[in-house]
Amino acid sequence: MPKKSRKNVGLIGLGIIGSRVANALRVGGFHVYVWNRTPRAAPNFLASPRQVAELCDVIQLFVADAQALFDVLEAMGDALTSSHIIICNATVGPEATLEAARMVQERGGQFLDAPFAGSKAAAQNRELVYYIGGEDKTLEAVEGVLQASSKEIVKIGKVGDAAVIKVATNMIVAVTVQTLAEAYAIVKESGVAPGALAEALKHHGVRSAVGEVKLAKMLERDYEPHFSLKHMFKDVQLGIHIANSLDIDLPATTATAGVMYGGLTKGWADDDVAVLGRAYQKEAPAVTAEKGPILLKGPGEAKAAPVAPEPGGEKKEVPRESNAEELRNMGIKLPEATVETVAAKAPEVPKTDGVTASEGLPEVKSETAKGEAPKEAGKVEALAKKAVDGAEKTGTGAPEENRGNGAPGETEREHTPFVRIRRWFGTGSPS
């Protein structure tokens, strides 16, 4: 086996980004030793993470999720020592990042929180942007390694802070892509050439690199992965998990998560996130994935998502609402009351003892003899009519809890709006 050298750099995770970073390091003059869960025909491919740690003091990790991160660190065993600097380039959220840092630091090693911005083209061109959380001296020791594959290194703060920034920026990307897909659909169905949207956005204030790249992929119906749907869904879930811990509602992100999950049930997991535009295209989607994403609930806690079902042909499925159980299984926090659509009713006049007519109306108990009309009936009826008349004038509905959503003859109980997710892509439910 080769000897350990300062020029040795380990890299674990040879996916879309990791494989290209490994090549950038080789171009930069480093001796690169690699490992991947699935064996690859790559130079200096080693048998285990332990062997990587035995040869390299600096190791970059481009693994898919928190469980893979923990597994790799455990697999290094006692080969991970105080001489090591572990650079975590995975997007796993702050909790898992802090747990990984603890695992490294317990063995005397140093840890750098270093997620990145940029997809396949940026990695290919050595133009990634690294967000850094950790000690300045740790960054200084590995700055040359990071510079080999990047155009910018942005210091954020302590370990865990960069992980938060990475999740936050990916939330913006996810919602942007879904909004582009919706705009594309409106333009196309209105009879306007979809390419006109791309031309218009070139001169609009919302123009962005993400928008240009992802809209172009929708227009060309080219969903070769640069950033896969399954990984973006995982990152959006991390954002929802963080928000839940902070008691923050994320209506746009949560709605997008529901749409993305529908795409996963259609087998689009390994396609580029731009595949969200396929919902508005005529051809039946091809199944390109055997398994769904990893659903993360926190450090060390993960479970496999359900296997994507076989496509149901070209028949267009009717969108439906995600129920409360499905949303909770996706990691979305719901208040105790669930969203339900109920038929609007005018307050009823009480007919028997102990019946309450409506919120805000007094409870009426009849004390009349058998066969007599309740003495308070007329009063309650008048109050009920007044409540309904007032609601019609103000447009606020009868009781506030039953305000309508605009559909004729229906009202909706008050709730945070983010839980109303339409399933545009299918009817599969999480298990």
Could you explain how this protein is built, in words?
The chain is α/β, with parallel strands linked by helices and 431 residues long. It has three domains: 8-159, NAD(P)-binding Rossmann-like Domain (Rossmann fold); 164-338, N-(1-d-carboxylethyl)-l-norvaline Dehydrogenase, domain 2; 341-348 and 380-414, no CATH class. The protein has 13 helices and 16 strands. Strands 2-1-3-4-5 form a five-stranded parallel sheet, sandwiched between helices. A three-stranded mixed sheet has the order 6-7-8. Strands 9-10 form a two-stranded antiparallel ribbon. β3, α3 and β4 (85-88) form a beta-alpha-beta unit. α2 (49-55) crosses α3, α7 packs across α9 (209-220) and α10 (229-245) packs antiparallel against α11 (251-265). It is globular and about 65 Å long. The model is unreliable at 284-321, 337-377 and 390-431 (pLDDT under 50).
Tell me briefly what this model is.
By secondary structure, the protein is an alpha/beta fold.
Indicate the topology:
Blueprint: E1 8-12, H1 18-27, E2 31-35, H2 49-55, E3 58-61, H3 66-76, E4 85-88, H4 93-106, E5 110-113, E6 116-117, H5 120-124, E7 128-133, H6 136-147, E8 150-157, H7 161-189, H8 195-201, H9 209-220, H10 229-245, H11 251-265, E9 294-298, E10 301-304, E11 320-321, H12 324-329, E12 341-343, E13 355-356, E14 363-364, H13 377-394, E15 410-412, E16 422-423
Parallel strand pairs: 1-2, 1-3, 3-4, 4-5, 7-8
Antiparallel strand pairs: 6-7, 9-10, 11-16, 12-15, 13-14
